[in-house]
C-alpha cells in the first residue's frame, strides 16, 4: 500500500491533516480559551453552512435551486443558521455531567494563577473560532480530493494522523518549549486529549 503513496498523494494527505488536525482543532481550542463554551459552540454549528458555501464558490458542488435536492440544501442551511441563532440567544440552567471540580484548575500557588485563561478576549477568540470554522470547511472539501487520489480511506486516515502529529509537534515546540506545557495530568485536559484522538478518525 505504501508503494501507492507518491509525493502528490502525500502532499494532499499532509494538507488534509494540516486543515483537519492542526488548524481546525488548534484554532478551536485557542478560541475556546479566549471566549467561552456557549459562544464557541455557535461556530461548530455553522460549519456545514460554511462548507456548503465554499463548496459552491469553488464549484465542488453545484446548487440547482430549481430541483428538490437543491431546495433541501438551502432549507437545511437556513435551519442550521436559525438553530445557531437560537442556541446563542438561549439562556438556561447549567448542566454538569461530571464532577464540577474537573472544570476548575487545581492551583495551589499564586504563581500558577497566571496560567488560568481569562475568557475575556472576545475579538481574538472570535478570529480563532472563525479560522477554525473555515479550516473545518476546507478539510471536508479537501477530503474529496484525497479520496480521488488515494481511495484507501483507513490507510489515508492513518497517514493523516501521522502527518498531523508531526506538524502539531513542530508548531507546538515553536509556540511553547516549556516541559510543563507538555505534561498531562489526571484532569479535564487529559480527557480532552483522549476525546480528540478518538473523534478525529471517526469524523472521517
TrEMBL record:
Keywords in alphabetical order: Membrane, Transmembrane, Transmembrane helix
Claim: Nucleus is one of the keywords in the record: no
InterPro entries: EamA_dom (IPR000620), EmrE-like (IPR037185), WAT1-related (IPR030184)
One Gene Ontology molecular-function label: transmembrane transporter activity
Residue span, EamA domain: 4-88
One term under GO cellular component: membrane
Cellular location(s): Membrane
Major site of localization recorded for this protein: membrane
Topology in membrane: Multi-pass membrane protein
Membrane-spanning residues: 9-31, 37-60, 72-90, 122-142, 154-175
Similarity comment: family membership: Belongs to the drug/metabolite transporter (DMT) superfamily. Plant drug/metabolite exporter (P-DME) (TC 2.A.7.4) family.
Name of protein: WAT1-related protein
Amino acid at each position: 500500500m505504501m508503494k501507492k503513496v507518491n509525493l502528490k498523494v502525500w502532499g494532499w494527505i499532509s494538507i488534509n491533516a494540516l486543515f483537519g488536525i492542526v488548524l481546525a482543532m488548534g484554532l478551536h481550542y485557542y478560541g475556546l480559551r479566549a471566549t467561552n463554551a456557549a459562544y464557541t459552540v455557535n461556530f461548530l454549528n455553522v460549519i456545514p453552512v460554511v462548507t456548503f458555501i465554499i463548496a459552491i464558490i469553488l464549484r465542488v458542488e453545484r446548487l440547482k435551486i430549481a430541483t428538490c435536492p437543491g431546495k433541501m440544501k438551502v432549507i437545511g442551511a437556513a435551519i442550521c443558521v436559525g438553530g445557531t441563532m437560537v442556541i446563542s440567544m438561549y439562556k438556561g440552567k447549567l448542566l454538569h455531567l461530571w464532577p464540577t471540580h474537573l472544570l476548575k484548575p487545581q492551583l495551589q500557588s499564586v504563581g500558577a494563577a497566571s496560567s488560568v485563561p481569562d475568557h475575556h478576549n472576545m475579538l481574538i477568540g472570535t478570529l480563532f473560532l472563525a479560522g477554525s470554522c473555515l479550516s473545518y470547511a476546507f478539510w471536508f472539501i479537501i477530503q474529496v480530493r484525497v479520496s480521488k487520489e488515494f481511495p484507501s480511506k483507513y490507510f489515508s486516515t492513518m497517514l493523516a494522523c501521522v502527518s498531523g502529529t508531526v506538524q502539531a509537534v513542530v508548531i507546538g515546540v515553536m509556540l511553547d518549549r516549556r516541559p510543563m506545557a507538555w505534561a498531562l495530568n489526571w484532569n479535564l485536559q487529559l480527557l480532552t486529549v483522549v476525546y480528540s484522538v478518538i473523534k478525529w478518525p471517526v469524523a472521517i
